[in-house]
């Protein structure tokens, strides 16, 4: 789910994700060394932190690690619902990341 061309706001995107049921048959599933439910939990925590005032310095490496993991697993997910669920999660993480890009020197 590429949302880069849309004027998307984090709160409605996060709310849409919160309302979506976790793909139950993927509970406990590990793809390419990534535990799916933990990845979901990490990005959820990051979204909540961002909506509550922003990430702290300790959250930023976690954010980039989550994006790396999402980029790694998305092409490997064969189930359409699960793939869209994690694509939305990736869009959330990438939306958050826009505020934490290193400045050019």
Structural class: mainly alpha
**What does the largest sheet look like?**
2 strands, antiparallel
Shape: globular
Radius of gyration over C-alpha positions, nearest whole angstrom: 13 Å
Mean pLDDT: 89
- Poorly predicted runs: 1-7
How many beta strands in the DSSP annotation? Answer: 2
Structure report:
With 105 residues, this protein is mainly alpha-helical. 56% of the residues lie in helices and 4% in strands. The protein has 4 helices and 2 strands; from the N terminus they run αββααα. It has a two-stranded antiparallel ribbon. The chain is globular and about 35 Å long.
List the helices and strands and how they pair.
Layout: H1 10-19, E1 30-31, E2 34-35, H2 36-51, H3 59-73, H4 80-97
Antiparallel strand pairs: 1-2
Helix pairs in contact: 1-4, 2-3, 2-4, 3-4
């Amino acid at each position: 789910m590429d949302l880069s061309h849309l004027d998307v706001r984090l709160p409605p995107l996060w709310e849409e994700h919160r309302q979506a049921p976790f793909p139950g048959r993927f509970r406990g599933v590990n793809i390419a060394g990534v535990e799916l439910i933990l990845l979901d939990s990490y990005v959820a925590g990051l979204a909540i932190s961002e909506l509550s005032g922003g990430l702290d310095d300790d959250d930023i490496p976690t954010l980039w690690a989550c994006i790396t993991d999402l980029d790694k697993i998305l092409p490997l997910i064969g189930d359409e619902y699960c793939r869209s669920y994690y694509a939305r999660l990736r869009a959330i993480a990438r939306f958050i990341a826009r505020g934490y890009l290193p400045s050019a020197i």
